[in-house]
Structures are given as C-alpha cells and as structure tokens.
Automatic annotation (TrEMBL):
<dbReference type="GO" id="GO:0000287">
    <property type="term" value="F:magnesium ion binding"/>
</dbReference>
<protein>
    <submittedName>
        <fullName>Mandelate racemase/muconate lactonizing enzyme family protein</fullName>
    </submittedName>
</protein>
<dbReference type="InterPro" id="IPR036849">
    <property type="entry name" value="Enolase-like_C_sf"/>
</dbReference>
<dbReference type="InterPro" id="IPR029065">
    <property type="entry name" value="Enolase_C-like"/>
</dbReference>
<keyword id="KW-0479">Metal-binding</keyword>
<dbReference type="InterPro" id="IPR013341">
    <property type="entry name" value="Mandelate_racemase_N_dom"/>
</dbReference>
<dbReference type="GO" id="GO:0016836">
    <property type="term" value="F:hydro-lyase activity"/>
</dbReference>
<dbReference type="Pfam" id="PF13378">
    <property type="entry name" value="MR_MLE_C"/>
</dbReference>
<keyword id="KW-0460">Magnesium</keyword>
<dbReference type="Pfam" id="PF02746">
    <property type="entry name" value="MR_MLE_N"/>
</dbReference>
<dbReference type="GO" id="GO:0016052">
    <property type="term" value="P:carbohydrate catabolic process"/>
</dbReference>
<feature type="domain" description="Mandelate racemase/muconate lactonizing enzyme C-terminal">
    <location>
        <begin position="136"/>
        <end position="244"/>
    </location>
</feature>
<dbReference type="InterPro" id="IPR046945">
    <property type="entry name" value="RHMD-like"/>
</dbReference>
<dbReference type="InterPro" id="IPR029017">
    <property type="entry name" value="Enolase-like_N"/>
</dbReference>
<dbReference type="InterPro" id="IPR013342">
    <property type="entry name" value="Mandelate_racemase_C"/>
</dbReference>
Amino acid sequence: MKIEHIEFYHVSIPLDEPFMLSWVPGYPMTENQFILVRMTTDDGIVGESAGISIGETYASYGPTISSFIVGRDPFDVEGFLNMLEVEGTMGLRLAWLEPAFWDIMGKACGQPVYRLLGGGNNRIRAYYSTGELREPNRRADDLIQMRERGFKAVKLRFHNLDWREDMKVVEKAREVIGDSMEIMVDANQAMRYEILQPGPRWDLKTATDVARALEEYDAYWLEEPLDRGDYEGMRELRQRTSIRIAGGEINWRLQEFATLVQSRCLDILQPDAAYVGGISTTKKIAALAQASGLGFEPHTWGNGISLLINMQVMASSLQCKFCEFPYDPPSWTLEGRDGILAEPIDIDSEGFVHVPEKPGLGFVIDEEKLKKYGRKVFEF
Ligand SMILES: [Mg+2]
C-alpha cells in the first residue's frame, strides 16, 4: 500500500462570539482556523489529520511536503517520523501529519487506533478545560452548569498580571463546588505570547507562591508554571510544593521528554500528538511516564480532530486519568471547535468522553461543512 494523493484545506470556522484566549492577552479570536490534510492510498483508503496552522503557508510548502509523503507506505510510521525529524530541523514542524497514517492503518485493519495501540477501554473522564479569564462569580455560575452537565473536573486559567486575582476564582470555585470537582490550574508560562498586550511573567518565586497558595484549595495540578526550558526551576519548584507540576504540551521530540524526566521537572507529562511527534511519539512518552512512575495526561486544544487524535492515545494508556475537553461557551463551543465533523464530540451524563468505535481516528468529515468553511490550498 502507498499514499498516492494528498490535499490540504484551510478551514476557518466562525465563532459565535470572540474567544478571549487567556494565553494571548488582548487577542479576540473570531475564527477557529486550522489545516486539514487528506491523504489517499492506491487502494482508495483516505486518512485525515489536522494541525493548527496558517493555511496560506501550506500552499507554498505543499510541493515540499507532498514530495516526502506521496509514494510512502502508510504503515512505515517510524520512517516517516525520521523524515519529520529532518524537516523539523530545517524549520517545518509537521508532526500533525503523522496521525493521518494511523487513520489509514486503522481503516485498513478495520479497528479504531486506540485498539491498534493496545487499549481496551474507550471511556475517559473529561475535564472542563476553560480558555478565558472570567470574574469569580461568572465562573462560579459556569461551574454549577458544568457540574450538572456531568463534569467532575475543571481546569482554570491563571493569566492576570497579578496571580492573586486568579486565586480569587479558585477560592470562589471551591466555595460553590466544594469537593465535587477536581480543580486543575494552567499558567501557560511555557511560552509567553505578548503580541498585543503584556502578560504575566512568572519566576520561581512567583510559581512557588502560587503553588503554595493552591495547596490550600487542594488543586490537582499546576500546569506550565515556568518556561519550558527552565529545568532547574521546575525541579526546585517540585521540591517546594506538594501540588503536582504538569507540563510538556509544546515540548518537541521524545528526547525533550527524556530530559524533563531525567531532570525530575514534572509529576505529569502532557505531550500533544500534534506537536511532539505524532501518535507514535506520544505513545512512547506514555511508556516513559509509566516506567518513571509519572502521570500521563496528554494536552489537546484547537479542533475536534486534534482532540480525537489525542483521545486515541489516552484510551490506550492505563495511567491516563483525564481527557482535556476544550470548552468555554458561549465563545468556545462544540460547534466552533468541531464544526466540520459530522458529529461533535461530547461527554456523557457522567462526564466521560468515548473514543468512537469507527476504524481509524474515528471522525467523519461533513463534506457540506467542509465546503462551507474550508478552501483547498494545495493538491498533488
Ligand atoms: Mg496547557
């Protein structure tokens, strides 16, 4: 079997209202934009994947990318990863293409990918992963609604210039939900976007103060409290607090995770298949976490396809306890997130997501919606 044909679509789904993502201060996101790749093999199997990228870029890189995909055996994932490694060094980060290979393999074998990876259970507890900074009372109202919807865990964003403002949201959250939900906190300090407005810049002392304050509220983890390369800082922070330190969503390559583990930086590893090196590398990081006695809670954000890709690895790994469920209505909704899928991904009444039992990655593109929101930017 070999890949014969490749297409890239630039997808742009309008959001109901501007999404004020906390990690890019001052930037109102009005559309969910990403690239959809569609690869077709010589026997007609279609594999798809998606990455968060600017579409026009792929019109110019299309010839280069297609030159190392067309003609390739979709079962030779290791060979493809080696190619991605070379391209990555040259400046193209294309790990998000690899899940399309798994989509093809799953369809060829008639099995969902999580089963090809050795998983036996397709249910994962979802956590309500917020994206915006909201006033304590408004967030408390959201939490009451989300608990009724079934969520048993929430991740709150810390991104005010003064973290004590963020702490007020945690305080209010605990007041209204008591112990009925786990609370995670994400500081998004691993990479600092300051395109339009300055954001908070935590140092080790700030991270320590926050972690110690969170101990009082029994937070489950503190995510990305320091720069992703501050290995010494993360190791020291872990010594200073009982709160679990999580991170790794934008780290790249298996080797960076090996360094994070060897340097004792994290309690919980959070690779994202779209960044780190595809489903294969994420699964290898699950093994690294298991062998090191660490947590493994993959990150996901962006669109329903990336969510399903990461869910496949989550469902194949016994130490994964939670599934990140990006959701912050009324701006970040299921429709805005999953807008080109025939069926949006949702939780059940007990707060679990289910990996579809369909062969491959488990999603079906709604061709009418793709026509409406997508534009083909390259084909070979
Ligand atoms: Mg995060």
